[in-house]
Amino acid sequence: METKKSPNVDLDRFHHVFLEIGFVLSLGICFLAFELKTEVKSTELKGELVVQEIENEMIPITRQEQVKPPEPPPPPKVVEVLNIVSDDVEIEDELEIIDTEADEDTKIDINPVVSTIEEEEEEEESQVFYIVEEMPEFPGGELALRKFIANSIQYPVVAQENGIEGKVYVRFVVNADGRVSNAEVIRSVDPALDKEAIRVVSNLPIWKPGKQRGKPVRVAFSVPISFVLQ
User: Fold this and answer.
1) How far apart are alpha carbons 185 and 187 in whole angstroms?
2) 128-129 and 215-227 beta bridge pairing
3) Enclosing domain of residue 177
4) Residue 174 φ then ψ, to 5°
5) Distance between CA atoms of 18 and 11, rounded to whole angstroms?
6) Distance CA 224, CA 150 (A)
7) What's the DSSP call for residue 179?
8) Tell me, what's the pLDDT at 28?
């Protein structure tokens, strides 16, 4: 026989309703659990707090003993030896007294004495300075010096034929009167070019002399002379 149930007592039809009610209840319980707050009760510290003092250990300061250098030995004693000479000994070295009185016929040689000031002036005049308070100046300045050298150069024919070019450095002395002297080549290129450079420098006009402590002095000066073929 088949069992039959009355549709009024069949609970399967409320299955979905009970399931939704269970979900709602569980969700509500979760919300309540998050909303609950627990009060933290004050805690009491039991026991005694012991403060322990730490003693600082004193480190003794040690000093290194200074070793004194040994004392120098005492100076040797000097014993003076006295030679006692009897009165009977004859002394060979006798003093000769010469009469130094001058009369009318006595001739006296007098050597001329040159003052140190004049000697110093002569030394300054002969001394050649390289750096002074006021350096020598060519009339018209450096540009005029270059123009004078360029217009005065006569290019040697031998150097032209051999295609020799270069820069010759010439050193000379500007004297206290402004004249040029002692021209010499300090950096050579070719004998022909060196000779022409010396000739040009030796024919330079009178300069404004250099001065040291307000006095004209001799000053060394150097110029480069370029030889370029066109």
Assistant:
1) 6
2) parallel
3) 124-224
4) -95, 110
5) 10
6) 11
7) -
8) 85
Instruction: Please check whether residue 183 lies inside any domain of the structure.
Output: yes
3-state class of 208 per DSSP? strand
- Does the global pTM surpass 0.85? no
Report the number of distinct structural domains present in the chain: 1
CATH of the domain at 197: 3.30.2420
Residues 6+ apart with CB under 8 A from 119: none
Structure confidence at residue 31 as a pLDDT band (50, 70, 90): confident
pLDDT in tens, 107-141: 555 555 445 555 555 655 678 898 899 999 999 99
**Residue 74 falls inside a structural domain:** no
Chain position carrying tokens 């709602």:
24
* Contact status, residue 91 vs residue 180, Cβ threshold 8 Å: no
* CA–CA dist 172, 177 (Å, integer): 14
Whether 94 maps to a domain, the answer reads no
CB 149 within 8 A of CB 200: yes
Query: Between residues 216 and 88, which one has the greater pLDDT?
Result: 216
Amino acid at site 199: R
Within-domain flag for 42: no
Sign of the torsion angle spanned by Cα atoms 135, 138, 141, 145: negative
* Mean pLDDT computed over 55-62: 61
Instruction: Judge whether 208 and 134 are in contact, CB under 8 Å.
Output: no
Structure tokens at 74: 């005492």
Residues 6 or more apart whose Cβ sits within 8 Å of residue 104: none
Q: What are phi and psi of 32, to 5 degrees?
A: -65, -35
